[in-house]
Amino acid sequence: VPISGGQVECDGDRSYRWHAGMVIADPAWKPIQETDKLHPVSRHSIQLWSRLLLPRSQRWVEIPCGRVFPEDGGNSEDAEAPPLEFDITAVSALGTIRAYLQPVDLSGMRGHTAIETILAAVAPAHPRDLTPTMHCLPPEYVVGEPHGGDPVADMHAIAASIGMVLYEDAVGVIRLDPVPDATPDYDWSTGVVQRIDVEDTSRSELVNSLLVRSGSHDVDPPVFAVAQITDPDDPLNVGHGFYYPAPPLVSDSVTTTGQCQLVADTELVRRRELRQDLSVVIPPHTHLQPGEVAILDRPAVGVVGTRRVTGWVMSLDTTALQAVLMRGAVNG
Predict the structure, then answer these.
(1) Which of 106, 137, 132, 138 is nearest to 119 (CA)?
(2) How far lies 78's CA from each of 29, 45, 75, 109, 181, in Å?
(3) Beta carbons of 295 and 189 less than 8 angstroms apart
């Protein structure tokens, strides 16, 4: 595809990970008929790549940075005089899933089997690789309605209830993996970061104690668990005598106290990491994935230690820098 401009976004906080807005330089590619390759119903996808020159070997390597499906391309009103270029937007696999055709029974299934069952019902053509889990859903668990419901939201809720994350990788495979820990993947303490903007969390959003309880009527008596910050080096340690409890989190997917504890621990870490939002400008690192961790050292703006990548945005331009979105990184 002859792309002359645009940008690609990778967002770990969105229900689908990849989004691209592209300027196509050749009017011959403009989608007019439903069979045209860039038409939203053509079933074609676009694999985006970036090229990186390795300084030592002087060799070019290609890095995948998203497989997306055309979503909108607009047609010219004057087919006799099409524009020299046109815009399209495209989203990754989870962004193409709309609704259920009929209810799906997931009663008692393990988490990964439940997600596989939903995908088989609403998106059988998309490749997937789902990490197995021993955690099960309640004995009665049905999702969806005829031509309604939100399959993607249901799958994300199930993934969260088993301590995992659902996403599409850079080549379009739908994956279910454990939530990554805070082990550093990169050292950006010197020579990488060109600009950094920081926004601190307000006191009203701080959390150091979180309760998760079951919401399914089939789990009787209900189960629950509490997670608290107890790290002596953390300013929000409950041992200091200052408490910031979050409203109870009710999950219809959990069935055991251990599962509640897993969800509580994972969610408390996520909320603790929200203490600081960062926008970091660096040279192109299109291999970055949400969840990865980098070491930063900017004491002047209060950014020292590990921070987690939540996403990035980059222009489809050979001279562009990359804006990386980050927040704190905390081990559970």
Answers:
(1) 106
(2) 16, 27, 9, 54, 54
(3) yes
DSSP state of 117: H
CA nearest to 312, candidates 1, 57, 17: 17
Q: Rounded to an integer, what distance in angstroms lies between the CA atom of residue 149 and that of residue 118?
A: 12
Q: Decide: 184 and 173 in contact? Cβ < 8 Å.
A: no
- Higher-confidence residue of 167 and 199: namely 167
DSSP 28: G
Which amino acid, 300?
A
Give CA–CA dist 212/234, Å, rounded.
Answer: 22
Q: What tokens does 37 get?
A: 């390759």
Residue appearing with tokens 């906080």? 13
pTM tops 0.85: yes
- Determine the Cα–Cα distance for residues 112 and 310; give it in Å rounded to an integer: 24
Mean pLDDT of 64-79: 74
Q: How many helices (H) and strands (E) does the chain have?
A: 3, 19
